[in-house]
Amino acid sequence: MKKYYIEEYPDMSEGAKGYIEGTHDRAMWLHYLLETAEKLGYDVEALTDEAIFKNGKAATASWEGKTAGDFARSMTGSEIGKQAFNAKLIEANDKHAVIHFHYCPLVAAWIKEGLSEERVADLCRHACKGDQGRASNFPITLKFPKQLAKGDEYCELDITTND
User: Fold this and answer.
1) Which of 2, 20, 90, 108 pairs with 146 at a CA distance of 20 to 30 A?
2) How confident is the model at residue 163 (pLDDT cuts 50, 70, 90)?
3) Bridge partners of 98?
């Protein structure tokens, strides 16, 4: 699995670098919380289905729009967030949208911590429940055909407006 470093993006703003550092902290919280929950025998799936999904849903509660393109434009609307995830809006129309994220501060933190490829992929799967929560405020379907955590070149969010 490729290692990701902030230094690979020398033109990144200080705001984006700060955002990444905060996200690294959040990534490790997630890892330690889930690791502890697993050790204590808790249902980690139920925990993340409820908590991470709920957090994502709350994050987009005030977003306007009804289409895949509206959701994608909102996801890439913050310049700091766009830089921090090296996000590229590939397509955004009423029926379909695609976003590529070429960097993930969460994945970078887990790799930096030395977690196994399997653990990184599993943590990513749980973290993506937040994106599903974000999407739940829109009449859309969100898929992840490519993921950095699985060794792909970028994360791809494939968004389709429900009929």
Assistant:
1) 20
2) confident
3) 91, 158
